[in-house]
Amino acid sequence: MNAPLTSAISRYPVPQLADVPADIREKILAVQEKTGFVPNVFLALAHRPEEWRAFVAYLDAVMNRDTAPGRLSKGEKEMIVVATSAANGCLYCVVSHGAILRIYEKKPLLADQLAVNYRKADITPRQTAMLAFAMKVCLDSAALAEADFAALREHGFTSEDAWDIGAITAVFGLSNRMANLTAMRPNDEFYLMGRVPKSPNATRASGA
Amino acid sequence: MNAPLTSAISRYPVPQLADVPADIREKILAVQEKTGFVPNVFLALAHRPEEWRAFVAYLDAVMNRDTAPGRLSKGEKEMIVVATSAANGCLYCVVSHGAILRIYEKKPLLADQLAVNYRKADITPRQTAMLAFAMKVCLDSAALAEADFAALREHGFTSEDAWDIGAITAVFGLSNRMANLTAMRPNDEFYLMGRVPKSPNATRASGA
Amino acid sequence: MNAPLTSAISRYPVPQLADVPADIREKILAVQEKTGFVPNVFLALAHRPEEWRAFVAYLDAVMNRDTAPGRLSKGEKEMIVVATSAANGCLYCVVSHGAILRIYEKKPLLADQLAVNYRKADITPRQTAMLAFAMKVCLDSAALAEADFAALREHGFTSEDAWDIGAITAVFGLSNRMANLTAMRPNDEFYLMGRVPKSPNATRASGA
Amino acid sequence: MNAPLTSAISRYPVPQLADVPADIREKILAVQEKTGFVPNVFLALAHRPEEWRAFVAYLDAVMNRDTAPGRLSKGEKEMIVVATSAANGCLYCVVSHGAILRIYEKKPLLADQLAVNYRKADITPRQTAMLAFAMKVCLDSAALAEADFAALREHGFTSEDAWDIGAITAVFGLSNRMANLTAMRPNDEFYLMGRVPKSPNATRASGA
Amino acid sequence: MNAPLTSAISRYPVPQLADVPADIREKILAVQEKTGFVPNVFLALAHRPEEWRAFVAYLDAVMNRDTAPGRLSKGEKEMIVVATSAANGCLYCVVSHGAILRIYEKKPLLADQLAVNYRKADITPRQTAMLAFAMKVCLDSAALAEADFAALREHGFTSEDAWDIGAITAVFGLSNRMANLTAMRPNDEFYLMGRVPKSPNATRASGA
Amino acid sequence: MNAPLTSAISRYPVPQLADVPADIREKILAVQEKTGFVPNVFLALAHRPEEWRAFVAYLDAVMNRDTAPGRLSKGEKEMIVVATSAANGCLYCVVSHGAILRIYEKKPLLADQLAVNYRKADITPRQTAMLAFAMKVCLDSAALAEADFAALREHGFTSEDAWDIGAITAVFGLSNRMANLTAMRPNDEFYLMGRVPKSPNATRASGA
Hints:
homohexamer; mainly alpha; 9 helices
């Protein structure tokens, strides 16, 4: 009924780093340099180089967008990823982005809280409103209405913020489905990152 | 409660073609040349050029992938788009890709059938199995299991086909959410395309 | 798993027009005269003449009820049919009443909009409220409460209008289930009706 | 939030028996003669005589259809009504047809069992299969497939039996929605009927 | 597919009263003395004496708690049991506690109303609010929020009352699952209790 | 909309250890001795001593039951708690029993896997079958049928094992609802337990 008990990182063939196209390899090595290991998603999706490039470009576009003060912080973006990925039952994204979230926010409990029930997490009412909007995009986007945008505005979010929240949710909705399709396995390293005082080579994180 | 009665094509500002970055404008003009008009998605998403580029690259990667005989046909790919976009209540994608599907398959009734109930559509049992897999990726990917892949294999689908089905569903799951977020409006032209003998300038289609 | 790929109009035996009881044949011929063809529902349900008579009587009672100005228009009644039939996944009713709706409202795009997501359709806020009430009757009638009637009143609907909306939804809930049970196939003619300038013999419509 | 605590039998005006059209009054009096009282549905729906006539004709068509031995018994038809009406949260139909079921089957416990969980009721495996099919028509008719008909055939049901099961479910789906719309109240008499040795004037039942 | 047609009171072995531990037997005999028969739950769960003791202690703690005037009445507690047990499809609890509810409230119709649709029952708006809270604890406790407690306060309920409502719902959520697991059968006696003038030995009730 | 951002461990008053009844205090001190701290559930529920005693007795009855080899292990019991508590969105139980699970199984990744998607966890097919049964008891116990018990037997589970699985699920269904009702906060200590080499005073765990 389910994927076999295995340490395979994907249902599909996973290329050796030496065999992936040079531009992809270069980016993977850069992540490895920064994170200390290669997150499995970068190898698992490299089975299809063209899709890999589009996926990574999309992640960059929504997650690393230059944001002025008052816009979504990097930590808030990860909150959206963790909460909506949990709603989609995506083990890879909850574990890997939970790690990044803990590091960004320096709150070792937060990822576990958001993965189980965002309404019980140690976040602000503004962040709760952000996640309520994200969950609607995730689970019932057809019913999005002016009232949902108005609820964001009450907490000071602009319509551009609403786009950010929605786009992050949408991109990780894609990622969640690909991870579930391929039975993508999170690297063991992610589970502990950000829970204990960080080791020297984990100063910055890149999980997906 | 819902988006105002309007001919606006997006809740968000839509750039003039003259104002979009040159690489994007060039691609949009190419689509216009081929289709006879500019599908609204290309203008609505150009509000964010970086996301536009990633989105279009992803579409290319999953929809225009070179396929050997026996792999998913272009028409079958559009079937997946129409059926799963309907499940997500995405007006833009159902209408625009319904048009493309009618043109590819030369079956003027098929898109409407798939949009309402794929189990009642004029398709083969193999295509029904393809859509059942797509719907599971769309609606309950966390529960994907070996049995789902086995059901595809019974109809001759390979595991690469399964990836194709899943990836198309995942990319349009993203597209559906962005279209619902922005209240994206399909061009009026799409509604009739492929229903009547085609006009000279609609020989090829590009809907999203 | 699903009905075979076929041009059969029902899972059940379909009588020849010559073999149906005279009163039924007479009514069917009148519809044919008006519409230019016999909608399949009139033949498929004629397998059981008594049920046919009750069904047609019920349709007449709720759809052709004489309405004073300000009550539900004929087009609005068809909006209810299309939106709720789509929620029930009923291909026959969405396609046939979509055709009638296009003709009544002279809006070739409206039926497709309502079939995918009524919240995104080109309708008035009053009509959106009407459809929200209809969808609750369709999907969760046990929870109907005074607040639902009050929401209608805010848009000028009377309690008699509420009955109309509910009764149309209820009758087509029956029709949807019978069409799904019998795998009833819409006539090919319906798909194009009202999308292009009408032909002389399609001046009035009757889709059932 | 809900209908007021009241002994009103409908949210809508209920006509006096003297004021209903003669043909309807005659039928109502016949029911009263047989049952000992007038079931409220006959008065509540008489607010709209045309709909009343169609409704009663439909009930007759599906519930009183002459059935050869081996077809659905009168008691089995009432089982379908009770189980599906409970799924729709319809108080009127569960209570009134629960009474009739008890009388037909002479099993005072059966209606309560079916109203809570048909899988735990004192019925045969064949009847359980019948109700499983009815529940699918009630709750997810869009997904009806050959496998559902095959499951019925394994228990000796013909395709005509399948129509009967589906049509009863469909007609009471309509009735359930009208009863919920009007907040129709079951007569107090129904609650006890068939639970204790019957009184002389309740030899035959007619609940809706 | 379902438990066999049988008069067995449990899927599991049921001990003879003579074989249960003395402390349990003593309590069972006390119930029998009061009720006139031994409710099956006391025998079915005695298959595991330790669980039996904890279960009965929990019931006592939440159902027989000394309550000042203005707190939940015994009848109101049974309303919660019947409505939430119906939502869980638990035949045993609906039937046995429906009997107790009828006796406490001296309203022979109330249990059937609550089992089908609590919004249509002959209860006060305050009691409807109580049941709306109970249903949220039963069906979606993860989403419980301050607004739910505030809705109770509007009807004069304290936070201790909220605990009572929630705890009763939680304990019977356990009971419902054990009854469904064991296919526990309600005693035939329960079905009629409180519907007709009571017999001398049924002056007090104990159903679970 | 949700519980305020706070370090309070309950929406309700929490007694001081000195103020709880002696028998309860004694047990709490024993847990503290063993675990190194007092799990919040023992203080939060002590607001109602009688319920506390019944709750703890029930936990003992289902979690510490003497089990012969081949029966559910202590680790497997915790797997059930984590997976079903996640389905109920219960932060307290997922976090506290996740800690215990990690310690019993000596698998630091397992709890996070089960909390997100048990189908992707590093468990045996037998354990997956165990959790599939538990999830049905948790989410749809009304539909439990012989086929579910048969699926367990295929993996060597006895009917007594089925009771264990069901009873653990049922008791924690109660616990989950009480924790959600009271907005119970897990102790910070739990989040890290079992993820890193254990400290001397955490040799045994008791999370509730």
